[in-house]
Amino acid sequence: MGRVAIVSLMVILAAVISSITSYQVKPANYAKLIEKQKKFDEAFEKEFYVEHTKYVETGEQSERLQEMFEHIRQKPDMFRMEMDNHPLPYLTAECTACRALVTTYLTYRRVLGWDRDRIALQAASTCETLNILTPPNCLKIVNKNIDILLYIIDNRPSLTAQTICGIIFQSGTCVLEDPAFLNWSINVQSGGRPITASKTSPNRGASDLKIIHITDVHYDPHYRTGYNAVCGEPCCCREGQGIPANPADGAGEWGDYRDCDSPWKAVEDAVRAAARQHPDAAYIYYTGDIIDHGVWETTVAGNIVSMTRTYQLFRDVFGSKPVYNVLGNHENNPTNVFAPSYITQSEFSAKWLYDFSADQWSTWLPTASQQTIRQGGFYTVLVRPGFRIIGMNNNDAYTFNWWILYDPAYLQAQLQWVHDTLLQAEAAGEKVHILAHIPIGAGTSYRTWARQYRRILDRFWDVITAHFHGHTHADEFNVFYSLANPQHAISAGFNGGGTVPFSNYNPNYVVYYVNPQTYDVTDFESWYFSLTEANQNPNRNPIWMQLYSFSRDFQLSNVSPASLDGLVRRFASNPAELRRYWEFKVKRGDPFIAAGCDGDCLLNHLCQIVTNEANDDTKCNALAAIFRNLDDELFNEEK
How far apart (Å, rounded) are the C-alpha atoms in residues 559 and 201? Predict the structure, then answer.
């Protein structure tokens, strides 16, 4: 993942990283390390501005500036990882880069009066210097985002580098301090059942409903079998990247582990396999990200073609069965940016996407849902008496949505609507499933937004029976704990993984068993195929297999928040069981298995399950205390 000048820094950072989410456990001396890092960052920031200004004036990079660029240069594996999964040394270098570069370019814009084109060319040059993309593609991605960023910067003169970097990173020396970004809230009505214990739910039964969860197909219309899978850019296997000299570096027939999205035949095979294997499924959930990772060259017209083709596939394959969709962060153009509804300029607004989605989803949703979809890409639907779905567009709270920097409080509106919808559901005696692309509470979920959502969940913990996520491409779950009573587990989030292998995964989908009276998830299972085996047999369809049946494989009576909380504590004292969970989470992707996962790695994945809000380490610290006391040589003490 690149860290480049105010435009390319923020754009590349957000747009081209992949999405595996984990968690970085902080060392015991973390506070001292941060104080030391703050002093380093302040000195680096000042020196970088001086050296970069000299470079701009002379056209020559000093030896010192070259050293500073080298310090902030991307690491080879950064593109593959969501920010949460970056080791602490990566995060500190990224934060240093963010502060130095954003401060420098804010000065160029606000003090020296640089115009749009000058900033764009310089940002693209820095992108090239840091080997983020090819020179033409650097300029493409900068030009796709620069007008939005400059509009925000020019209209928010009090916006500082500390706030910008604090929103993006939410950790280390890049922490959010601006009260305007920390102190907004929604109105939560009093009432509801008091939380006195962790939430339980029924065991799996013969009459349970089946729900298929598909997510993150990332269809790439430019994917070509045999083309370069080690192209050196954030997304490979594409026709414009040529055929490699070494055939082993060519893209596989059914996809590729190496930073590549999915060819259409793989998308279609996954959807048809799910329908064929589970003809008794009642509903289908799709939690976003149809569009590919070639973010430097996506277009509105191209996105519409890819989405239209995918939604039509759902209609063709599932017929009359309802498919409930939510938007992913890649669906808009540019990627990640979802402006407030009052921003009406066509070049900034996501209205095209909301109108398109309302039209496409009308196959499965009632007319009453149209208003909120066209307003902001979210909706609610009564699926059957007593059972309601809320489809959120929580991409607005993704920390790479630049519009948070413009007006963080605009996020209140959708959250307040969620609260009010839940209040009505409670009065009607309904239970609710929440669908959202970004895992709620993940490290790239804006912290203030996550805190307000936790207030909603505390109030409606007995109305919301489950959450369903995508985005990370990992087959994982998380446990939500009460904000007011953190010893109690009150909800769970289930991630569908993804049919895309980007990066190092095997494709999968998930099937849930849901109690037809309480609408609790009672069990779930994952289905996958080996990408290695499929590509070795390119002339036949992949062989889909069950990866796990969760209750069976972890010996649980059910998958209630209480049971999952108990399982997490078991993981903390049983590394072998935790390692098994990790193998399921990465879907036995061959590169992951070959690389392994040591004690620190396992602990990070364990903590990810229980972290509900950025920088809330309470649950993680308790589990780490148990895990690190194990006498099993799990940890590399030299780290």
Answer: 8
Which residue numbers belong to the known binding site? 216, 218, 289, 329, 437, 471, 473
Closest by Cα among 365, 354, 347, 360 to 395? 354
Among candidate residues 332, 620, 623, 286, the one with its CA nearest the CA of residue 471: 286
Q: Backbone phi, then psi, for 154, in 5-degree steps?
A: -70, -35
Residues 6+ apart with CB under 8 A from 318: 275, 284
Sign of the torsion angle spanned by Cα atoms 608, 618, 523, 320: negative
Q: d(Cα 279, Cα 282) in Å, to the nearest integer?
A: 9
| Percent helix, strand and coil across the chain, each to the nearest 5 | 45, 15, 40
| pLDDT for res 3 | 32
Residue 527 has phi, psi (to 5 degrees) of -120, 140
pLDDT per position as a tens digit, 540-581:
999 999 999 999 999 999 999 999 999 999 999 999 999 999
SS3 580: helix
Taking only the tens place, the pLDDT of each residue in 213-253 is 999 999 999 999 999 999 988 899 999 999 999 999 999 99
Three-class secondary structure of residue 445 per DSSP:
strand
Structure-token pair, residue 295: 């973010």
Which secondary-structure segment (H or E) carries 455? helix 447-459
Burial class of residue 539, CB neighbours in 10 A (0-12, 13-18, 19+): exposed
The pLDDT of residue 372 is above 70? yes
Per residue in 183-214, pLDDT tens? 999 999 999 999 999 999 999 999 999 999 99
Single-letter amino acid, residue 184: W
* Residue 483 region by backbone torsions, left for phi larger than 0, else alpha for psi between -120 and 50, else beta: alpha
Q: Please report, for residues 7, 61, 120, 127, the alpha-carbon distance to residue 58 in angstroms, rounded to integers and kept in the order given.
A: 22, 8, 19, 19
- Residue 283's contacts (CB-CB under 8 Å, 6 or more residues apart) are 209, 211, 212, 321, 322, 323, 324, 383
* pLDDT in the model for residue 161: 93
Rg (CA), the chain: 23
Strands, sheet with 323-325, edge to edge from the N-terminal-most edge strand: 323-325, 283-286, 209-214, 508-514, 521-528, 545-549
Q: Are 303 and 352 in contact (CB under 8 A)?
A: no
Give the other-Cβ count within 10 Å of 67's Cβ.
Answer: 11
C-alpha distances (whole Å) from 494 to each of 161, 499, 529, 552, 609 are 35, 15, 20, 17, 10
Residue 180 has pLDDT above 60, yes or no: yes
- Strand-pairing partners, residue 384, are 387
Q: Which residues pair with 174 in a beta bridge?
A: 171
Six token digits for residue 254? 């059914």
Residues 422/463, Cβ–Cβ less than 8 Å:
yes
- CA 64, CA 366: separation in Å to the nearest integer? 62
The annotation places the binding site for Zn(2+) at: 216, 218, 289, 329, 437, 471, 473
Six token digits for residue 219: 């269809």
**In Å, how far are 167, 322, 394, 469 from 327, measured between CA atoms?**
22, 16, 9, 11
Question: What would the two tokens of residue 162 be?
Answer: 């500390």
